[in-house]
Amino acid sequence: MTGVLRLGSGPDTRIPWRRLLDELAAAGYHWLELGPYGYLPPDPGLLLDELAARDLHVCAGTVTGAGGPHGDFAAVLAETRRVAELTRALGASDVVFVPSPGYRDDRTGGYLEAAELGEGQWRSLLANTGLLGRVLADEYGLTLRFQPHADYQVANEHQVRRLLDGTDPRYVSLCLDTGHLTYRRADVLELIARYPDRVGYVHLRQVDPALAARADAEDLTYGQAVAMGVSVTPPAGVPEIPTLLAALTALGADLFVVAVDVPSPLARRAHDHLTSFGGLI
Fold first, then answer.
1. What domains lie within the chain, and their CATH numbers?
2. Which of 99, 123, 199, 250 is deepest in the core (most CB within 10 A)?
3. What pTM did the predictor assign?
4. What pLDDT does residue 1 have?
């Protein structure tokens, strides 16, 4: 059984979107995740023309900013539908759900709610995530990829396992975010081995382990840790890329592997480094 690992990029939203597309194309990328709704123009006709002119394609839509499914589910569903409409119009088949904001205020570090969900909240999370996946599948023909987030209540290995064990694999799969998971000390390779059929998409990030340990010791938010430099551009951090790519290749599945948190000026260097191992196209 063989599969294809397709390398994509997440947008660097700090620069104008046309410049971003130019730089990604020049760096050798052919796939792009939409990122926060509204950064790239939500007019599918305009965006398809701009992408085609650069031989770029959309690999997934991104839901972020609406919070987690255990909270205001009406807002979560509304934002997901908005993203799903655009994603489908652009010819992609995946929607990455990022449960952000989480339980902390990135700016102040204050706790907005408990870092652990109660049993009733877990029941809501599992039921609502399953419903979200069914809506995407049945109404839009899209697949939900749930991304753990370091400051949400699905972040560490135990929490990810509970999410996957408690949801229907027909409707919910994992966006394996190597940075957020490693930051929360999850064993990424163990998750791949334990849930080979649930890894449906990959966000490739690396973290500086020393800075991650410092952020944990100082009780920083993930946003504060990122500002401190915890998220690093390959090949500077962990997990190790060759070992990770070997585990993903062994799945024999077609997967998008999307390099995120790579500053636009470093896009070419990251692309060349990641493709140097083979296995990524």
1. 5-275 (3.20.20.150)
2. 99
3. 0.97
4. 60
**pLDDT tens, position by position, 215-258:** 999 999 999 999 999 999 888 899 999 999 999 999 999 999 99
Backbone angles phi, psi at 43, to 5 degrees: -85, 105
CA nearest 116: which of 152, 149, 146, 71?
152
pLDDT in tens, 142-164: 999 999 999 999 999 999 999 99
SS3 per-residue string spanning the chain: CCCCEEEEECCCCCCCHHHHHHHHHHHCCCEEECCCCCCCCCCHHHHHHHHHCCCCEEEEEEECCCCCCCCCHHHHHHHHHHHHHHHHHCCCCEEEECCCCCCECCCCCCECCCCCCCHHHHHHHHHHHHHHHHHHHHHHCCEEEECCCCCCCCCCHHHHHHHHHCCCCCCEEEEEEHHHHHHCCCCHHHHHHHCCCCEEEEEECEECHHHHHHHHHCCCCHHHHHHHCCEECCCCCECCHHHHHHHHHHCCCCEEEEECCCCHHHHHHHHHHHHCCCCEC
How far is Cα 229 from Cα 78, in angstroms, rounded to an integer? 34
